[in-house]
Write a structure and sequence with these properties.
Length: about 120
């Protein structure tokens, strides 16, 4: 599987921002109108970008500071013009997430437009 380097950079920045509890980093890789939706063990969660960035920022100490496990893997990447579908697996907050990103290339820059997430059991 070949992953566009710009998409890989966006995914890496997303993950590094999660681990640093960096809300501005999260905002920088998402489209302003994005939605973050998925299932945690307690059920369905739906968030705006601001809600998600606030959640990430609220994780204190940050996963990096707490010495959390690090694991990020790009499972699939399919590009169609200036759109892409990317599926990743990552370790965050003691759980393994499968995220599906819908991405857009806007003004030469790849952004996450929507994020669907699932926790592996």
């Amino acid at each position: 599987m070949s992953v566009n380097i710009e998409i890989q950079d966006c995914v890496n920045k997303y993950y590094e921002s999660l681990l640093a509890s960096d809300a501005s980093g999260i905002r920088s890789v998402f489209h302003p109108n994005s939605r973050i939706t998925g299932y945690l063990p307690d059920g369905l969660h739906e968030m705006t970008l601001d809600e998600f960035a606030g959640f990430v920022e609220s994780q204190q100490p940050s996963p990096n500071e707490a010495g959390a496990d690090r694991m990020l893997e790009i499972l699939t990447c399919e590009i169609a013009g200036e759109t892409a579908g990317v599926r990743i697996r990552e370790s965050y907050l003691g759980m393994i997430f499968i995220d599906t990103f819908s991405m857009l290339k806007i003004e030469g820059r790849w952004l996450i437009y929507n994020k669907l997430f699932h926790v592996e059991q």
